[in-house]
Amino acid sequence: MVHEVGTIMDESRASYLAAPLAVRLRPASIQELLGQQHLLQTGSPLLRLIEGQEKHITSLLLYGPPGSGKTTLAKMIAHSGSREFVELSAVNSGVSQVREVLLAAQDRMTQENRETVLFIDEVHRFSKAQQDALLPGVENRWVTLVAATTENPSFSIISPLLSRSIVLTLRAIPDSDIETLIKRAIADPRGLNGEVTISSQALDSLVRLAAGDARRALTYLEAAAGVTTGEITPEILSRAINRVIENYDRDGDNHYDVASAFIKSIRGSDVDAALHYLARMLESGEDPRFIARRVMISSSEDIGLADPGALGLAVAAAQAVALVGMPEARIILAEAVTYLACAPKSNAAYLAIEAAIADVRDSKNGPIPPHLRDPHSGALRDTQVNAAREVNSYIYPHDLAPGVAKQQYLPDVLVGTEYYHPTTHGYEARVKTALEAIRRMLKGS
Fold first, then answer.
1. Among residues 204, 197, 199, which one has the least CA distance to residue 247?
2. pTM above 0.70, yes or no
3. What is the pLDDT of residues 238-257, one digit of tens each?
4. Are 60 and 93 contacting, i.e. CB atoms less than 8 angstroms apart?
5. Roughly what angle, to the nearest 10 degrees, separates helices 95-112 and 128-139?
6. Which of 90, 55, 60, 92 is nearest to 74 (CA)?
7. Which residue segments constitute the domains of the chain, with CATH numbers given?
8. Which of 72-76, 216-220, 355-359 bottoms out in mean pLDDT, i.e. has the lowest?
9. DSSP label at 91?
């Protein structure tokens, strides 16, 4: 009999260890949870739900990137009391399955007085009809809906469902917490039980490649542990996940070298080199939002009015990257980088503001011409200033046919100064021609 019990325990242990590392290491308590501390402050709704302090829980929409803990939080909420936990996947569940779950939940509430927590992963994949089918259950509290999505609920969830739920925004797991998770997974008996170690270089690479995704970190770690019985090195990690692990410390020289080469390739109109460095950054686990910010800066610093549409495209790309995330964000960034590299270049606007700032820092300010001052300011109530304003009264440009009036705008000390010198590249060539005419009219020549 003892032998039979031992056999059963061994089989149970073997079955448990067959589960993915990310499943085995799923936090069993709030104390084990990493990240999302902004949602777990004392007295916060989420913490009260997890700790079972709320008798009736409100439906929740958990919005955040992959691997940020949405499923973990849902299960913690469900298991905080005697609630039934039912899980559906929006990928393979239809309206009929939703209705079956709601009917069962209604019976459970009526006959057993037990709440049902319905967890739906990737709820943004539900059609409008499928989301509509959830409304009776949510409205009548047959189920407490806890839905997870990686897409902005404002765009992907129907308004009636959105208005009946609290939206909680999860963030990517901080690198420090990802590192803690990896070390825990190596040492924990539920994980690798100390059977392998990891070098500092491999640990840094794994944290970087995880990019805030706890599930990805554990998946890569498990793959690497499967090909060694000793230390996980960058070479072993690279072989295990079939990716080149580049020396790309986010706080080191290589990080800035690659980013610099990326921007200089765009500036130099070498689209192939720009795409190469983009690929190196992405494959090294660089935050795509960092890349998007560099692209926005480049659109103004290196292209400017040679192609005024570049900034709009770069901003749109940055917004899309934030909404979509990796891996699809790579396509959006590639489009923006290709556009910028191929666009005509001008740094005239950049040089203009640098020159203007230099003069301001050099105290070349001077009084604002009287006719440009606010007529309600205290200074203009001074009789001498008012007299000067009467002599040099402001001319409203829209009253003139060309829309340009001959009058002084710069302070006396800077009269005649020209900061902006447009190039003849792209659209800026038209700006140059127009500006030359405007400057002649301002001078009255």
1. 204
2. no
3. 888 876 565 555 555 567 78
4. no
5. 10
6. 60
7. 36-169 (3.40.50.300), 175-241 (1.10.8.60), 253-342 (1.20.272.10), 357-443 (1.10.3710.10)
8. 72-76
9. T
